[in-house]
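Posted in: Protein Modeling Q&A

I'm a second-year student putting together a small comparison for a lab meeting, and my supervisor asked me to include a predicted structure for SDR family oxidoreductase. I've never done this before, so apologies if this is the wrong subforum. The sequence is pasted below exactly as I got it from our records. If anyone can share the structure token output, I'd also love a short note on what stands out.
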Amino acid sequence: MSPHARSVIITGGATMIGAAVAENFANNGDQVALFDIDVAAGEEVAGRLGAAVSFYDVDLTDDAAVSRGIADVVARHGGVDVLINLACTYLDNGLATTRADWITALNVNLVSAAIVTQIVVPHLKNRRGASVVNFTSISGDVAQAGRWVYPASKAAMSQLTRSMAMDLAPHGIRVNSVSPGWTWSSVMNTLSGGDRARTDEIAAPVHLTGRTGNPSEVAAVVAFLCSDVASIVTGANYTADGGYSAMGPERADQLMAQLTN
Ligand SMILES: NC(=O)c1ccc[n+]([C@@H]2O[C@H](COP(=O)([O-])OP(=O)(O)OC[C@H]3O[C@@H](n4cnc5c(N)ncnc54)[C@H](O)[C@@H]3O)[C@@H](O)[C@H]2O)c1
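Accepted answer (user: helix_wrangler)
Welcome! Here is the predicted structure, written out as tokens:
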């Protein structure tokens, strides 16, 4: 439990992972603003989580809309203490990705995180325990077949986290990122037709935990990074990936043992 109620903005908060992050803050007594373009899902999440959580219809690629949204949050909650840059697009056609799609995807995944942070920073300055958490991914550290844009955007977010952490440290603002592995999320739900068991089965060989993560497990790492307990942590990329990134190309197979067969 945080000793003081905080004002929290979560971009992409309408999605399953965003909702879990919001729920964690709300349970802690914080006030949460969800910024998203998915009005139906955003209003459903806000309605379900209660009075502490409000939905704002904000297109993150529209600077004026972002500024209006942040001004509304400041007017309503008296400031901003925490920003979670969670929104993303999976728009990516690998080698065949058009210039327009490259620009659209990087605009959502990378540039919007930078601009939202830029607009929020004046409000974060000198707020006790101010912090920013960016969402990166296991995809930012490895090659994945047919994907060029999304992994590049996530790798860039890791670097942006370090840059932000350096320049915002003098203002008492900590900046970290969280890197989920396969998480039971809207995209997994849609792709698998709602089949969690099948999704876990496919994820198992590449995660030490042998399963996908729960949104609440990712949310717990975000909550830790934003808490006073993490007051010495800044510029870090925290994995919440079930050990995916600890594994090498040999996975958990004993390849050397196969030499003797
Ligand atoms: N799902 C996973 O397994 C997984 C794994 C690693 C990392 N991540 C990261 O976790 C975060 C959440 O992932 P997810 O799978 O829940 O994503 P998602 O696609 O379900 O949700 C993304 C949200 O961003 C919103 N959004 C997109 N463009 C926007 C815009 N212009 N303005 C405002 N909102 C916009 C969407 O409406 C959506 O609600 C992302 O940053 C993703 O990279 C997810």
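A couple of things worth pointing out for your meeting: Residues 12, 14-17, 36-38, 59-61, 86-89, 108, 135, 137, 180, 182-183, 185-188 surround nicotinamide-adenine-dinucleotide (CB under 6 Å). The first strand starts at residue 7 and ends at 11.
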